[in-house]
Amino acid sequence: MEFLIANLRWFRYNPIPMAYDTLRDFIAVLEKNNELVRVKAEVDADLEIAQITDRVSKEKGAANKALLFERVIGSAFPVLTNAFGSMKRICLALEVESLDEIGQRIKELVDPTNLFPGPGAGILDKLGVLPKLAELAKFFPKTVKKAPCQDVVLTGDHVDLSKIPVLKCWPADGGRFITLPMVCSIDPLTKITNVGMYRMQVFDHQTTGMHWHKHKDGARQYQQYEASSRRMEVAVAIGGDPSIIYSATAPLPPAIGEFIFAGFLRKKPLEVVQCKTVDIRVPAEAEFVLEGFVDPHERRVEGPFGDHTGYYSEADEYPVFHITAITHRRNAIYPATLVGRPPQEDAYLGKATERIFLPLLQMVAPDILDMDMPVEGVFHNNVIVRIKKRYPGHGKKVINTIWGTGMLMLSKFVIVCDEDVNIHDYSEVTWKVMNHVDPQRDVIITDGPLDILDHSCPQIGFGGKMGIDATRKGPGEGFTRSWPDEIKMSPKVQALVEKRWKEYGF
Question: Could you tell me if 378 and 294 lie in one domain?
Fold first, then answer.
């Protein structure tokens, strides 16, 4: 009976741990941890803030800080940049000691042995599944009637984007770009709210571009509205608690809404509120909300834009967002991110995705032990994995699995290593590739979908891809020689020298 009660404990109320409610809560924690610099000098949103941010974001160690610009020329609102721009700050943002903690929570939640006990399972085993299923139910968003993001409501002629200190980041940019937007739209079929992060070029006081790549959920939804010639309502939240800002960047399956995932991350439901002029809910604690619509078939040239690849992306035609209302908090703070040659702030958001979603990749490819996506590969050009090799051709099988899995389909280079390789040490990976690989035997060259921002491919979004199998080879793969052993010192001598090193300070 006691065991049964323990398995039903999820029915009882348990206090949920505290989570950030607002961007201000996170700023306070950054300041407490000496991770924030308040810039008192008057600065310009046209290039100057970007240059300061770029310089600071590339500093090593303690010199790399979040920046709060308190006096921005021509605006009453301060600007926050580089808030997620280090491993320490991204962990503070998601309230963990290590990003792998979140991955482990996901692993426990989706582990099929937990969710689907086998046919021989008893009633107590099946009841043990209930807390796992209840885990997600606790994190559905909570709708509130009144919200800080609607302290000030501006409609009609009062809608004026020039009042918001939107940054121009690089000299050849086509204009000012909103770079940390949470673009909320409703899937016309499932009615699930999608929240994505798509840059928005400011065209004038009341219109922006909507940079929907064809591989993104927002673009897929827009195509459905376009096919029926229906106007698509959109709401753009800017700022909020870190969990929803990160969730807007996460590669979630369409059936899992970002609001629910944010609740899962923060271990507490996200509060949302109904917009004033469109039928969409947005995070209640956002700093700004832009409400409006995108008309089907309307396009306008957007760009160029200094992108996270370190190169300018080309100007092209994209949908146009018409703003019907701007709402914001009193004394709102405008958060922005700067992208360019890595490392930048987006590198750490990308690393969060790498660690958090590894368990989901392992569900479709359980032979993958670990994954690394180098910052220099800008998170869509290079994937390195290690496997416990079990049969001839196993490395090539994993390469093709990666190319067939979600947004990893865009990977231009895939490198597979043995289980004893530290794939986070790029020197070690390079050593293995250059010594293990026979180009004729171990390299796959094919073509397929690539990221829209990859400027090397012959046509936009499609080009060549390379897979490199850097695992040890055996007779089953045509290697009839003996594979050499690595040079290693004996453990006994290593221990002896280690002892003497401490004693004599060699």
Answer: no
